[in-house]
Amino acid sequence: MTKIFIGKEPDGEPRVALIPSDVKKLVLAGYEIAIHTGAGDGSGYNDDAYISAGANVLTCEDEGYAFADIVVRINKPTQLECLRSGILHVSGFDVFNHRDEIKVFADKGVKLIALEMIPRSTIAQKMDIQSSQASLAGYYAVILAASRMPKLMPMMMTPAGTIAPARVFVIGVGVAGLQAIATAKRLGARVEAFDTRPVVEEEVKSLGAKFLKIDLGETGQTEQGYAVALTEAQVLMQRAAQAKVCAQSDVVITTAKVFGRKAPLLLTKEMIAGMKPGSIIIDMAVSTGGNVEGSDPTKDVVLENGVTIISGDALERHVSRDASNMFSGNIFAFLMHFYNEATKSFVLDKNDEIIKSCLITDNGLIVHERFQ
Q1: Domains and their CATH numbers in the chain
Q2: What is the C-alpha to C-alpha distance for residues 135 and 294, in angstroms, rounded to an integer?
Q3: Which of 116, 118, 137, 278 has the smallest CB count inside 10 Å?
Q4: pLDDT for the residue 79
Q5: pTM for this prediction
Q6: How far apart, in whole angstroms, are the C-alpha atoms of residue 313 and residue 325?
Q7: Is 275:249 a contact under the CB 8 Å cutoff?
Q8: Cβ-based neighbours of 150, under 8 Å, separated by 6 or more
Q9: Strands 167-171 and 251-254
Q10: Closest Cα to residue 64, out of 117, 6, 110?
Q11: How far, in Å, CA of 37 to CA of 51, rounded?
Q12: What is the torsional sign of CA 8, 333, 21, 24?
């Protein structure tokens, strides 16, 4: 029987990797599960809910790591001394920004699964934490902007006059961008969007938004669906066209992350200087270098012209219950995909394409070719 430990996240992270309903299904399937006390509190799931689902509650991290064959978490652990040889550690890791820590896991003999490396394929769709969490972040970005800007989102006709709808500009039409567009439209805003991939134009229009067309020449996307990096000349053309839209916008939301690389700079200080006082910018790529010049992952930045740049780092944490539900669904799908019914155990199939994509360390070595 495979034993799973649900680790407690550090302060500031309210999500939990597995919720009680998924724990119950895993226990019924044949897994034995333990959770660190209080791990689900931030998402509204107390210890009693996990006990009712069939899990044991442990009082310290060391005890959990000693118990487990598999540890599941939202993020990489902060207490690396708990790691022991042979354990399988499954979490988001942000491997490109924490390469030095990969070696620690290898030296300790830990099998490390970095969930963000799971391929965007049809069979792995249910395990894709990038998409599930980005969708919620895109939703909350609009809610956050609506709460901070000095005007209404929808148009209102009143005896005192007509209030024009807010203008929202979304740059980057991936999962987060599409959800931001849909949410802003539901709130009654006038929405415009841009992406370097022309293929997303129809998706933007299907949500009732306008797609900003900029003739950049040849552009495209990677096999994983990410935008291809632009040339310097293309970047300048893009910024010039976007500056005009930004100047008219009440809210600008940037979502452009490039997997494994620094985020592209989309809004320069010169572009922001042309925006209206009271305008809100939310930089959802701030943790990977930022799309907005002057953005700060640790705080909001209020500029002299009255524009506020808000850190859009991990906005899904603000809707922790639903974010946990979706992350748990991803983990559950992963655990059951590699579950062997005959032996009632998890089998790490190293020949499987999903495992090949996300297994970073194994048997004391860094086995993923991108990090060797």
Answers
A1: 3-128+319-361 (3.40.50.720), 149-313 (3.40.50.720)
A2: 25
A3: 278
A4: 80
A5: 0.92
A6: 20
A7: yes
A8: 278
A9: parallel
A10: 6
A11: 11
A12: negative
